[in-house]
Amino acid sequence: MVIRMVQIKVTILNYINKYGDFTFSEKEFNEVDNIIFSVLTYIDFNNVVEKGLDKKITIFDAIDLYFSLHKKKYDKNDIYARKKAIKVLEAIKNKKRYKDLYLYNYIYIGDENHQFCAITVEVNIDLIFISFGGTDSLISGWEEDARMTYLFPVEAQVKAINYLNEYSKTKEKIIVGGHSKGGNLALVSSMYCTSSIKKRIIRIYNNDGPGLKLEQIESQEYKSICQKLVHLVPNYSVVGLLLINEKYITIKSSKKSILAHNFMTWKVKDDTFERTELSKFSLILSRSISNWMEKYDNTVRKNFFTTLFDICRDIELKDLGEMKKNKLLFIKLIKSAKKINPEVKEIAKDLILMINKCNKEYKKEVGVK
């Protein structure tokens, strides 16, 4: 008889079930709560949570209203992160730990030029969590991510700084966090907010989000907050190793490659994420990205990414979800890509070679031929 050992995957949902009946005064805020609040920005809270510091709604009432407005849990074209965030939303609705906390000051901007989201959670009268959103399916958001390789600050970073500065007249202690691009926005806004707010920030969570350009890593603004920074990356991190990262904590994911970016795959041990070491795949990827960035200066990178996103504009592609609905857009994209100039093609070739090299290492590491 063959006995198979079944490995139980412990996720943030297990944590919610285990500690959901403990208030924050009974069990203090921790890094798993951080990711729960960070992913709230993937939820469409329009017409649920209002903009402004004085228009608050409990999490319980917000979730009730959200599901009354959205009869379907999610649209088939919703981004993967939103589908997972909705599961978190369902899990916390009736839990003593979360249901009576307040949500407020929700903002979402998504147009042809920008994509930005933020929301605030009042943990108690002395502590708030400011959550910044990651990239959704809008092409403008992805283009802004690309701009981070050659420009600082990008529009979303400016908006994050302004959002944080709205709290200049309040007195609570502040925790700032976000997942993916939201993690970078949490970091940058904390670096460049007013000094009075900076003093009130007790922790900054960058959850598998990009790092900084060299000038920012070496800046006084970064040095002023780096001791408060907690940068969590899964062992198969991709997004969290983009740009420059001075320090990070590696945690276990049940998935590999880009799938490890999904916060629902992060393994939880009691009230923390399980620690581990970075995979060879991610180490090679990190070095390869650094080499690619060093090889091409800001001007070249700008020309490269501008050309790529100009193609999207030429075929009127505004949302990645449109690719699923209209297969002709993909054909148009391929045809337009053939027209790009030789210099851009050469950079793209370099990028593809880098990805292939990392992919070979990934296959070797996980034992796939």
Could you walk me through the main structural features you see in this protein, from its secondary elements to its overall organization?
Strand 2 and strand 3 (115-124) form a beta hairpin. Helix 5 (139-147) packs antiparallel against helix 12. The protein is globular. Mean pLDDT is 88; it is low at 1-7. It has 15 helices and ten strands. The protein has an eight-stranded mixed sheet with strand order 1-2-3-4-5-6-7-8, with helices on both faces. The chain has 369 residues and is of the alpha/beta class.
Q: Could you tell me the mean pLDDT? A: 88
Biggest beta sheet attributes: 8 strands, mixed
Based on CA atoms alone, the radius of gyration comes out at 21 Å
Q: Can you count the beta strands?
A: 10
End-to-end C-alpha gap: 30 Å
**Strand order within the widest sheet?**
1-2-3-4-5-6-7-8
Look at the helices and sheets and give the structural class.
alpha/beta
Classify the helix fraction into a percent range. Answer: 40-55%
Low-confidence stretches: 1-7
Strand content: 5-15%
Shape: globular
- Give the ordered list of helices and strands: HHEHHEEEHHEHHEHHEEEEHHHHH
Number of discrete helical segments: 15
